[in-house]
Write a structure and sequence with these properties.
The chain contains 16 helices and 19 strands. It has about 475 residues and is α/β, with parallel strands linked by helices. It folds into 2 domains: about 120 residues, Leucine Aminopeptidase, subunit E, domain 1, CATH 3.40.220; about 325 residues, Aminopeptidase (3-Layer(aba) Sandwich). Strands 6, 7, 8, 9, 10, 13, 14, 15 and 17 form a 9-stranded mixed β-sheet that branches. Helix 9 runs antiparallel to helix 12 and helix 11 packs parallel to helix 16. The two termini are about 25 Å apart. Belongs to the peptidase M17 family. GO terms for molecular function: manganese ion binding; metalloaminopeptidase activity. Keywords: Aminopeptidase, Hydrolase, Manganese, Protease.
Protein backbone atom coordinates (compact mmCIF):
# COMPACT_ATOMS: atom_id res chain seq x y z
CA UNK A 1 0.00 0.00 0.00
CA UNK A 2 1.08 3.59 -0.58
CA UNK A 3 0.58 5.84 2.46
CA UNK A 4 -0.39 9.42 1.66
CA UNK A 5 -1.53 12.53 3.44
CA UNK A 6 -4.86 14.09 2.57
CA UNK A 7 -4.75 17.19 0.38
CA UNK A 8 -5.17 20.47 2.21
CA UNK A 9 -8.81 21.50 2.35
CA UNK A 10 -10.82 24.30 3.83
CA UNK A 11 -13.27 21.62 4.98
CA UNK A 12 -10.66 19.74 7.04
CA UNK A 13 -11.73 19.22 10.64
CA UNK A 14 -9.51 21.10 13.12
CA UNK A 15 -7.53 18.71 15.35
CA UNK A 16 -5.94 20.48 18.30
CA UNK A 17 -3.19 18.66 20.20
CA UNK A 18 -2.87 19.69 23.84
CA UNK A 19 -0.57 18.89 26.73
CA UNK A 20 -2.31 18.93 30.14
CA UNK A 21 -0.74 22.27 31.10
CA UNK A 22 -2.19 23.89 27.97
CA UNK A 23 -5.76 22.73 28.53
CA UNK A 24 -6.81 25.57 30.84
CA UNK A 25 -5.62 28.12 28.31
CA UNK A 26 -7.66 26.47 25.57
CA UNK A 27 -10.77 26.35 27.79
CA UNK A 28 -10.43 30.03 28.59
CA UNK A 29 -10.45 30.94 24.88
CA UNK A 30 -13.05 28.43 23.69
CA UNK A 31 -16.74 29.15 23.14
CA UNK A 32 -18.70 28.60 26.36
CA UNK A 33 -20.63 25.61 24.99
CA UNK A 34 -17.44 23.81 23.87
CA UNK A 35 -15.66 24.56 27.15
CA UNK A 36 -18.63 23.23 29.10
CA UNK A 37 -18.73 20.11 26.93
CA UNK A 38 -15.03 19.40 27.49
CA UNK A 39 -15.30 19.93 31.26
CA UNK A 40 -18.40 17.75 31.51
CA UNK A 41 -16.68 14.98 29.55
CA UNK A 42 -13.73 14.87 31.94
CA UNK A 43 -11.14 15.38 29.21
CA UNK A 44 -7.71 16.01 30.77
CA UNK A 45 -5.36 15.70 27.74
CA UNK A 46 -3.81 12.41 28.84
CA UNK A 47 -1.74 10.67 26.13
CA UNK A 48 -3.85 9.42 23.25
CA UNK A 49 -7.14 10.70 24.67
CA UNK A 50 -9.49 12.65 22.46
CA UNK A 51 -12.82 14.37 22.51
CA UNK A 52 -15.00 15.27 19.54
CA UNK A 53 -16.48 18.77 19.70
CA UNK A 54 -20.03 18.87 18.32
CA UNK A 55 -21.13 21.57 15.89
CA UNK A 56 -24.58 23.21 16.16
CA UNK A 57 -25.68 21.38 13.01
CA UNK A 58 -24.82 18.00 14.49
CA UNK A 59 -21.51 17.68 12.67
CA UNK A 60 -17.99 17.83 14.05
CA UNK A 61 -16.69 21.26 14.97
CA UNK A 62 -13.27 19.95 15.89
CA UNK A 63 -11.33 17.46 17.96
CA UNK A 64 -9.11 17.86 21.00
CA UNK A 65 -6.34 15.27 21.35
CA UNK A 66 -4.23 14.70 24.43
CA UNK A 67 -0.45 14.67 24.21
CA UNK A 68 0.16 14.02 27.90
CA UNK A 69 3.07 15.59 29.75
CA UNK A 70 6.73 15.00 28.94
CA UNK A 71 7.02 12.08 31.36
CA UNK A 72 4.00 10.35 29.86
CA UNK A 73 5.24 10.89 26.29
CA UNK A 74 8.56 9.29 27.23
CA UNK A 75 6.69 6.04 27.88
CA UNK A 76 5.34 5.70 24.35
CA UNK A 77 5.97 6.68 20.74
CA UNK A 78 3.90 8.19 17.97
CA UNK A 79 1.44 10.29 19.98
CA UNK A 80 -1.99 10.60 18.39
CA UNK A 81 -1.25 7.79 15.91
CA UNK A 82 -4.27 5.75 17.01
CA UNK A 83 -6.57 8.59 15.97
CA UNK A 84 -6.18 7.41 12.38
CA UNK A 85 -8.30 4.41 13.34
CA UNK A 86 -10.47 5.77 16.16
CA UNK A 87 -11.73 9.13 14.84
CA UNK A 88 -14.84 9.40 12.70
CA UNK A 89 -14.29 9.26 8.96
CA UNK A 90 -12.98 12.52 7.58
CA UNK A 91 -9.96 14.71 6.89
CA UNK A 92 -8.22 16.38 9.83
CA UNK A 93 -5.81 19.31 10.09
CA UNK A 94 -3.43 19.33 13.05
CA UNK A 95 -2.86 22.40 15.18
CA UNK A 96 -1.32 23.16 18.54
CA UNK A 97 2.05 21.50 17.86
CA UNK A 98 4.89 24.00 17.62
CA UNK A 99 7.72 21.50 18.07
CA UNK A 100 8.77 20.43 14.57
CA UNK A 101 10.18 17.06 15.67
CA UNK A 102 6.95 16.22 17.50
CA UNK A 103 4.88 17.21 14.46
CA UNK A 104 6.98 14.91 12.26
CA UNK A 105 6.57 12.05 14.72
CA UNK A 106 2.80 12.54 14.88
CA UNK A 107 2.56 12.67 11.08
CA UNK A 108 4.65 9.53 10.53
CA UNK A 109 2.82 7.62 13.25
CA UNK A 110 -0.52 8.54 11.68
CA UNK A 111 0.58 7.11 8.31
CA UNK A 112 2.00 3.94 9.89
CA UNK A 113 -1.26 3.40 11.78
CA UNK A 114 -3.06 3.24 8.45
CA UNK A 115 -1.16 0.07 7.48
CA UNK A 116 -3.21 -2.98 6.57
CA UNK A 117 -1.83 -6.35 5.43
CA UNK A 118 -4.34 -7.30 2.74
CA UNK A 119 -2.57 -9.99 0.74
CA UNK A 120 -4.95 -12.69 1.98
CA UNK A 121 -7.83 -10.84 3.62
CA UNK A 122 -9.55 -7.55 2.94
CA UNK A 123 -9.50 -4.89 5.66
CA UNK A 124 -11.24 -1.58 6.01
CA UNK A 125 -8.93 1.40 5.49
CA UNK A 126 -8.27 3.80 8.33
CA UNK A 127 -11.26 6.17 8.45
CA UNK A 128 -9.38 9.35 9.40
CA UNK A 129 -6.87 11.03 7.10
CA UNK A 130 -4.44 13.77 8.07
CA UNK A 131 -3.36 16.84 6.17
CA UNK A 132 0.44 17.10 6.37
CA UNK A 133 1.08 19.43 9.33
CA UNK A 134 2.89 22.72 8.83
CA UNK A 135 6.64 22.20 8.79
CA UNK A 136 6.39 18.52 7.86
CA UNK A 137 7.91 17.45 4.56
CA UNK A 138 4.99 15.42 3.21
CA UNK A 139 6.87 13.66 0.40
CA UNK A 140 9.74 12.65 2.68
CA UNK A 141 7.42 11.35 5.39
CA UNK A 142 5.37 9.41 2.86
CA UNK A 143 8.56 7.86 1.43
CA UNK A 144 9.74 6.76 4.88
CA UNK A 145 6.32 5.32 5.69
CA UNK A 146 6.15 3.48 2.36
CA UNK A 147 9.56 1.90 2.99
CA UNK A 148 8.57 0.85 6.50
CA UNK A 149 5.38 -0.72 5.13
CA UNK A 150 7.44 -2.59 2.54
CA UNK A 151 9.35 -4.12 5.47
CA UNK A 152 6.03 -4.92 7.18
CA UNK A 153 4.72 -6.69 4.07
CA UNK A 154 7.88 -8.72 3.49
CA UNK A 155 7.94 -10.00 7.07
CA UNK A 156 4.20 -10.64 7.30
CA UNK A 157 4.17 -12.78 4.15
CA UNK A 158 4.40 -16.47 5.15
CA UNK A 159 7.38 -18.57 4.14
CA UNK A 160 5.51 -20.64 1.57
CA UNK A 161 5.39 -17.46 -0.52
CA UNK A 162 8.25 -15.38 0.91
CA UNK A 163 10.92 -17.78 -0.33
CA UNK A 164 14.49 -16.83 -1.28
CA UNK A 165 13.20 -16.50 -4.86
CA UNK A 166 10.46 -14.12 -3.70
CA UNK A 167 12.99 -12.10 -1.72
CA UNK A 168 15.04 -11.88 -4.91
CA UNK A 169 11.96 -10.56 -6.73
CA UNK A 170 11.51 -7.89 -4.05
CA UNK A 171 15.10 -6.67 -4.40
CA UNK A 172 15.16 -6.77 -8.21
CA UNK A 173 11.85 -4.89 -8.29
CA UNK A 174 13.32 -2.25 -5.98
CA UNK A 175 16.39 -1.98 -8.20
CA UNK A 176 14.20 -1.49 -11.27
CA UNK A 177 12.12 1.19 -9.55
CA UNK A 178 15.15 3.32 -8.64
CA UNK A 179 17.51 2.60 -11.51
CA UNK A 180 19.88 0.42 -9.47
CA UNK A 181 21.67 -2.73 -10.56
CA UNK A 182 21.10 -6.12 -8.94
CA UNK A 183 23.34 -9.14 -9.37
CA UNK A 184 22.20 -12.57 -8.14
CA UNK A 185 24.46 -15.52 -7.35
CA UNK A 186 22.50 -18.71 -6.68
CA UNK A 187 22.77 -22.46 -6.25
CA UNK A 188 26.13 -24.10 -6.97
CA UNK A 189 27.44 -20.79 -8.36
CA UNK A 190 27.76 -19.80 -4.71
CA UNK A 191 30.56 -22.34 -4.45
CA UNK A 192 32.39 -21.24 -7.58
CA UNK A 193 32.05 -17.58 -6.52
CA UNK A 194 33.33 -18.40 -3.00
CA UNK A 195 30.27 -18.07 -0.78
CA UNK A 196 30.56 -21.52 0.83
CA UNK A 197 28.66 -20.84 4.05
CA UNK A 198 25.66 -19.31 2.30
CA UNK A 199 25.56 -22.44 0.15
CA UNK A 200 25.97 -24.80 3.11
CA UNK A 201 23.12 -23.28 5.09
CA UNK A 202 20.68 -23.14 2.18
CA UNK A 203 21.50 -26.28 0.21
CA UNK A 204 18.95 -28.52 2.01
CA UNK A 205 16.01 -26.49 0.72
CA UNK A 206 14.16 -27.13 -2.53
CA UNK A 207 14.55 -23.39 -3.21
CA UNK A 208 18.14 -22.54 -4.09
CA UNK A 209 20.11 -20.27 -1.73
CA UNK A 210 21.30 -17.02 -3.25
CA UNK A 211 23.15 -13.79 -2.62
CA UNK A 212 21.43 -10.60 -3.76
CA UNK A 213 23.70 -7.63 -4.53
CA UNK A 214 22.02 -4.28 -5.26
CA UNK A 215 24.11 -1.19 -6.04
CA UNK A 216 22.92 2.39 -6.55
CA UNK A 217 24.20 5.95 -6.53
CA UNK A 218 27.21 7.91 -7.79
CA UNK A 219 30.24 5.66 -8.05
CA UNK A 220 32.52 8.33 -6.60
CA UNK A 221 30.31 8.92 -3.53
CA UNK A 222 31.15 7.41 -0.11
CA UNK A 223 30.36 3.69 -0.08
CA UNK A 224 27.77 2.55 2.46
CA UNK A 225 26.83 -1.12 2.55
CA UNK A 226 23.78 -2.69 4.18
CA UNK A 227 23.86 -6.41 4.95
CA UNK A 228 20.54 -8.03 5.89
CA UNK A 229 19.96 -11.56 7.14
CA UNK A 230 17.55 -13.22 4.70
CA UNK A 231 16.72 -16.56 6.32
CA UNK A 232 13.23 -16.93 4.86
CA UNK A 233 12.38 -19.77 7.22
CA UNK A 234 14.43 -21.32 10.00
CA UNK A 235 13.56 -24.83 11.09
CA UNK A 236 16.76 -24.91 13.11
CA UNK A 237 18.17 -27.43 10.64
CA UNK A 238 19.17 -30.78 12.10
CA UNK A 239 19.11 -29.10 15.53
CA UNK A 240 15.38 -28.85 14.89
CA UNK A 241 13.47 -26.17 16.78
CA UNK A 242 10.46 -27.23 18.89
CA UNK A 243 7.12 -26.23 17.42
CA UNK A 244 6.62 -23.23 19.69
CA UNK A 245 9.97 -21.78 18.70
CA UNK A 246 9.29 -22.34 14.99
CA UNK A 247 5.95 -20.54 14.90
CA UNK A 248 7.36 -17.09 14.08
CA UNK A 249 10.28 -18.15 11.93
CA UNK A 250 8.80 -16.52 8.84
CA UNK A 251 10.21 -13.35 10.42
CA UNK A 252 13.79 -14.67 10.39
CA UNK A 253 14.33 -12.61 7.24
CA UNK A 254 13.43 -9.47 9.22
CA UNK A 255 16.99 -8.18 8.96
CA UNK A 256 16.80 -8.39 5.18
CA UNK A 257 13.33 -6.80 5.19
CA UNK A 258 14.59 -3.86 7.22
CA UNK A 259 17.75 -3.50 5.14
CA UNK A 260 15.56 -3.49 2.00
CA UNK A 261 13.27 -0.89 3.60
CA UNK A 262 16.26 1.25 4.54
CA UNK A 263 17.66 0.94 1.02
CA UNK A 264 14.32 2.16 -0.32
CA UNK A 265 14.44 5.19 2.00
CA UNK A 266 17.99 6.03 0.91
CA UNK A 267 17.14 5.84 -2.79
CA UNK A 268 13.79 7.62 -2.53
CA UNK A 269 15.39 10.53 -0.67
CA UNK A 270 18.47 10.42 -2.95
CA UNK A 271 21.13 10.44 -0.28
CA UNK A 272 24.57 11.36 -1.54
CA UNK A 273 26.24 7.98 -1.15
CA UNK A 274 27.08 4.84 -3.09
CA UNK A 275 24.67 2.28 -1.70
CA UNK A 276 25.25 -1.44 -1.70
CA UNK A 277 22.64 -3.86 -0.34
CA UNK A 278 23.70 -7.46 0.27
CA UNK A 279 21.10 -10.06 1.20
CA UNK A 280 22.05 -13.72 1.67
CA UNK A 281 18.66 -15.36 1.05
CA UNK A 282 18.25 -18.96 2.23
CA UNK A 283 15.95 -21.42 3.96
CA UNK A 284 17.46 -23.42 6.82
CA UNK A 285 15.78 -26.73 6.05
CA UNK A 286 16.13 -30.40 6.89
CA UNK A 287 17.11 -33.00 4.28
CA UNK A 288 19.85 -35.52 3.58
CA UNK A 289 21.96 -32.64 2.29
CA UNK A 290 21.65 -30.45 5.36
CA UNK A 291 24.83 -29.29 7.09
CA UNK A 292 25.42 -31.07 10.38
CA UNK A 293 26.52 -30.46 13.96
CA UNK A 294 30.24 -31.11 14.06
CA UNK A 295 30.87 -30.07 10.46
CA UNK A 296 33.66 -27.59 9.81
CA UNK A 297 32.88 -25.05 7.09
CA UNK A 298 35.24 -22.84 5.16
CA UNK A 299 34.16 -19.19 4.89
CA UNK A 300 34.74 -16.67 2.12
CA UNK A 301 37.31 -14.95 4.30
CA UNK A 302 39.28 -18.17 4.74
CA UNK A 303 38.38 -18.65 8.40
CA UNK A 304 37.13 -22.11 9.32
CA UNK A 305 33.97 -22.48 11.39
CA UNK A 306 33.01 -25.45 13.55
CA UNK A 307 29.25 -26.05 13.58
CA UNK A 308 28.08 -26.80 17.10
CA UNK A 309 24.44 -25.92 16.42
CA UNK A 310 22.77 -25.72 13.01
CA UNK A 311 20.23 -23.33 14.54
CA UNK A 312 22.94 -20.66 14.70
CA UNK A 313 22.88 -20.31 10.94
CA UNK A 314 22.25 -16.59 10.52
CA UNK A 315 25.78 -15.60 11.47
CA UNK A 316 27.13 -18.05 8.88
CA UNK A 317 25.34 -16.52 5.89
CA UNK A 318 26.04 -13.03 7.17
CA UNK A 319 29.74 -13.82 7.53
CA UNK A 320 30.17 -14.53 3.82
CA UNK A 321 28.19 -11.40 2.90
CA UNK A 322 30.16 -9.26 5.35
CA UNK A 323 33.44 -10.56 3.98
CA UNK A 324 32.35 -9.51 0.48
CA UNK A 325 31.22 -6.10 1.74
CA UNK A 326 34.52 -5.56 3.52
CA UNK A 327 36.65 -6.31 0.47
CA UNK A 328 36.03 -2.86 -1.02
CA UNK A 329 36.75 -1.09 2.29
CA UNK A 330 33.53 0.96 2.37
CA UNK A 331 33.00 4.02 4.53
CA UNK A 332 30.45 2.09 6.60
CA UNK A 333 28.84 -1.32 6.90
CA UNK A 334 25.54 -1.79 8.73
CA UNK A 335 24.49 -5.36 9.46
CA UNK A 336 20.83 -5.98 10.38
CA UNK A 337 19.72 -9.38 11.58
CA UNK A 338 17.12 -11.17 13.65
CA UNK A 339 20.04 -12.98 15.20
CA UNK A 340 19.65 -14.04 18.83
CA UNK A 341 17.03 -14.78 21.43
CA UNK A 342 19.57 -13.48 23.95
CA UNK A 343 18.99 -9.95 22.65
CA UNK A 344 15.27 -10.28 23.36
CA UNK A 345 15.89 -11.60 26.85
CA UNK A 346 18.14 -8.61 27.52
CA UNK A 347 16.14 -5.81 25.91
CA UNK A 348 12.73 -7.15 24.89
CA UNK A 349 10.99 -6.79 21.51
CA UNK A 350 11.01 -2.98 21.31
CA UNK A 351 14.59 -1.94 22.07
CA UNK A 352 17.25 -2.94 19.55
CA UNK A 353 20.85 -3.56 20.63
CA UNK A 354 23.65 -2.37 18.38
CA UNK A 355 27.37 -3.05 18.46
CA UNK A 356 30.21 -0.88 17.20
CA UNK A 357 33.80 -0.13 18.15
CA UNK A 358 33.52 3.39 16.76
CA UNK A 359 32.69 5.88 19.52
CA UNK A 360 31.63 8.56 17.06
CA UNK A 361 29.27 6.21 15.27
CA UNK A 362 27.88 4.98 18.58
CA UNK A 363 27.11 8.54 19.68
CA UNK A 364 25.61 9.39 16.29
CA UNK A 365 23.34 6.34 16.23
CA UNK A 366 22.20 7.00 19.78
CA UNK A 367 21.35 10.60 18.94
CA UNK A 368 19.59 9.57 15.72
CA UNK A 369 17.60 6.97 17.60
CA UNK A 370 16.26 9.58 19.99
CA UNK A 371 15.61 12.13 17.25
CA UNK A 372 13.31 9.86 15.23
CA UNK A 373 11.79 7.67 17.99
CA UNK A 374 13.47 4.52 16.66
CA UNK A 375 14.96 3.05 19.85
CA UNK A 376 18.47 1.63 19.90
CA UNK A 377 20.75 0.70 22.79
CA UNK A 378 24.50 0.20 22.56
CA UNK A 379 25.93 -3.15 23.66
CA UNK A 380 29.63 -4.01 23.95
CA UNK A 381 31.99 -5.89 21.69
CA UNK A 382 33.45 -7.43 24.85
CA UNK A 383 36.95 -8.62 23.95
CA UNK A 384 37.39 -10.89 27.01
CA UNK A 385 34.64 -13.10 25.54
CA UNK A 386 36.64 -13.74 22.34
CA UNK A 387 37.91 -17.14 23.61
CA UNK A 388 34.28 -18.30 23.80
CA UNK A 389 34.04 -18.31 19.99
CA UNK A 390 37.36 -20.12 19.46
CA UNK A 391 36.96 -23.93 19.46
CA UNK A 392 39.73 -26.50 19.45
CA UNK A 393 39.63 -27.66 15.84
CA UNK A 394 38.68 -24.57 13.84
CA UNK A 395 39.13 -20.81 13.85
CA UNK A 396 35.61 -20.07 15.05
CA UNK A 397 32.67 -21.71 16.83
CA UNK A 398 29.19 -20.81 15.58
CA UNK A 399 27.44 -21.65 18.89
CA UNK A 400 29.54 -21.38 22.06
CA UNK A 401 28.51 -23.69 24.86
CA UNK A 402 27.02 -22.36 28.08
CA UNK A 403 24.37 -20.07 26.64
CA UNK A 404 25.68 -16.89 28.27
CA UNK A 405 26.19 -13.56 26.45
CA UNK A 406 24.66 -15.01 23.30
CA UNK A 407 24.08 -11.69 21.56
CA UNK A 408 27.60 -10.50 22.40
CA UNK A 409 29.32 -13.65 21.17
CA UNK A 410 27.29 -13.57 17.94
CA UNK A 411 28.39 -9.97 17.40
CA UNK A 412 32.02 -10.91 18.10
CA UNK A 413 31.71 -13.70 15.52
CA UNK A 414 30.52 -11.25 12.86
CA UNK A 415 33.22 -8.71 13.71
CA UNK A 416 35.87 -11.27 12.69
CA UNK A 417 34.73 -10.81 9.06
CA UNK A 418 35.10 -7.02 8.95
CA UNK A 419 38.59 -5.48 8.94
CA UNK A 420 38.80 -2.87 6.20
CA UNK A 421 35.57 -0.89 6.54
CA UNK A 422 36.04 2.52 8.14
CA UNK A 423 32.99 1.97 10.36
CA UNK A 424 30.97 -1.11 11.23
CA UNK A 425 27.78 -1.58 13.23
CA UNK A 426 25.81 -4.74 13.84
CA UNK A 427 22.16 -4.50 14.91
CA UNK A 428 20.47 -7.52 16.52
CA UNK A 429 16.85 -6.65 15.74
CA UNK A 430 13.61 -8.50 16.48
CA UNK A 431 11.58 -7.58 13.39
CA UNK A 432 8.20 -8.15 15.02
CA UNK A 433 5.63 -6.22 17.07
CA UNK A 434 3.92 -8.75 19.38
CA UNK A 435 1.02 -6.47 20.37
CA UNK A 436 -0.34 -3.51 18.44
CA UNK A 437 0.65 -0.07 19.69
CA UNK A 438 0.16 3.45 18.26
CA UNK A 439 2.02 3.65 14.96
CA UNK A 440 3.16 0.04 15.32
CA UNK A 441 0.67 -2.50 13.97
CA UNK A 442 0.99 -6.05 15.21
CA UNK A 443 3.24 -8.15 12.98
CA UNK A 444 6.32 -7.31 10.96
CA UNK A 445 8.23 -4.33 12.32
CA UNK A 446 10.49 -1.64 10.93
CA UNK A 447 13.35 -1.34 13.41
CA UNK A 448 16.63 0.60 13.27
CA UNK A 449 16.08 1.71 9.65
CA UNK A 450 14.90 5.24 10.45
CA UNK A 451 17.69 5.80 12.97
CA UNK A 452 20.34 4.70 10.47
CA UNK A 453 18.69 6.83 7.77
CA UNK A 454 18.77 9.90 10.02
CA UNK A 455 22.47 9.34 10.69
CA UNK A 456 23.31 8.82 7.02
CA UNK A 457 21.30 11.88 5.98
CA UNK A 458 23.14 14.03 8.52
CA UNK A 459 26.51 12.58 7.49
CA UNK A 460 26.32 12.55 3.69
CA UNK A 461 23.44 14.85 2.78
CA UNK A 462 21.41 14.51 -0.43
CA UNK A 463 22.15 14.71 -4.11
Amino acid sequence: MTPTFAPASADAIPLTALAPDALDGWLAEAPDTQAAWVRASGFTATPGSRIVLPAPDGGIAGVLAGLGDAAARARSRFPLADLANSLPEGTYALGGVEDAALAREIALGWLLSSYRFTRYKQAKPAPARLVAPDGVNAAETEAIAAAAMLSFDLINTPANQMTPAALEDAVTSLASEFGATCAVTSGDALLTENFPMIHAVGRASDVEPRLLDLQWGPEDAPKVTLVGKGVCFDTGGLNLKPGGSMALMKKDMGGAANAIGLARMIMALRLNLRLRLLVPAVENSVSAGAFRPGDVLMSRKGLTVEINNTDAEGRLVLADALALADEEAPAAIFCLATLTGAARVALGPDLMPFYTDDEGLADALGAASRAVADPLWRMPFWDPYEPMIEPDIADLDNAPKGGMAGSVTAALFLRRFVERAERFAHLDIYGWTPAAAPGRPRGGASQAARAILHHLDATYGRQ
